């Protein structure tokens, strides 16, 4: 499929105009899913280029994708990136007819630190009762600032001296913010009534354990949470950023999973929590 990618443009109509990049599939349906995408970079780095691989795959799965250049820490610590992303999400919903179609369903998606922000957006949209979300797509999400899981240790990472630890420190700014559910969604005590989730990780992913724990917690709270663990080696989450490799073995699997998730959630009430099929 041919993907049409716009040049970087400014998302006007928000308090602080933000840079975005829009991806459309050549055969996108009239009421294509509309996705706000957040790139990775451990909260303190990353650009729109780092979101190119996942944005392209989402567009190839039939979506119109708006990838957001959100403000980075440590210059903009929590909650700046989240609040900016929420304003962008509201803008997408209000302007969905121009971007995709009036009947288009709204999704959030992100990898690594972008997965954190995407999951927090789902919480925020629920609490604000707007905008209605059809789903959240989380790839190798950073959800736990403790960095004490087995998969983190297997990656020779941890709470000190790794890029994710440095990223968390820059994002949170102070330790007390780690208790905020929007900053560290895995620690949230209220995970009910969220949009259905697709949680994707890999056998060699340092974020594997926290990703699966989050999916399990969503299940326990009555939220539809599909999860897939891709076979190693993937090089996730690092391989998800930069120019990436659209010929990597996991690329076709992701494209298919995105398309299936869009199809499964296409006719569900936004933010409903009836169960979807679970694929281990």
Give the topology, please.
Blueprint: E1 3-5, E2 9-11, E3 18-25, E4 34-38, H1 52-60, E5 64-68, H2 80-94, H3 96-99, E6 106-111, H4 113-128, E7 135-139, H5 150-154, H6 163-172, E8 197-202, H7 208-220, E9 225-230, H8 251-265
Parallel strand pairs: 4-5, 4-6, 6-7, 7-8, 8-9
Antiparallel strand pairs: 1-3, 2-3, 3-5
How would you describe the overall organization of this protein?
- With 280 residues, the protein is α/β, with parallel strands linked by helices.
- The chain has a single domain (3-265), classed as Rossmann fold.
- The chain has helices spanning 52-60, 80-94, 96-99, 113-128, 150-154, 163-172, 208-220, 251-265; strands spanning 3-5, 9-11, 18-25, 34-38, 64-68, 106-111, 135-139, 197-202, 225-230.
- Helix 2 packs across helix 4 (113-128).
Rg: 17 Å
CATH architectural name = 3-Layer(aba) Sandwich
CATH homologous superfamily annotation: Alpha/Beta hydrolase fold, catalytic domain
* Average pLDDT, all residues: 91
Q: Roughly what percent helix?
A: 25-40%
The fraction of residues in strands falls at: 15-25%
CATH class: Alpha Beta
Uncertain parts:
272-280
Number of domains as seen in the coordinates:
1
How does the major sheet shape up? Answer: 9 strands, mixed
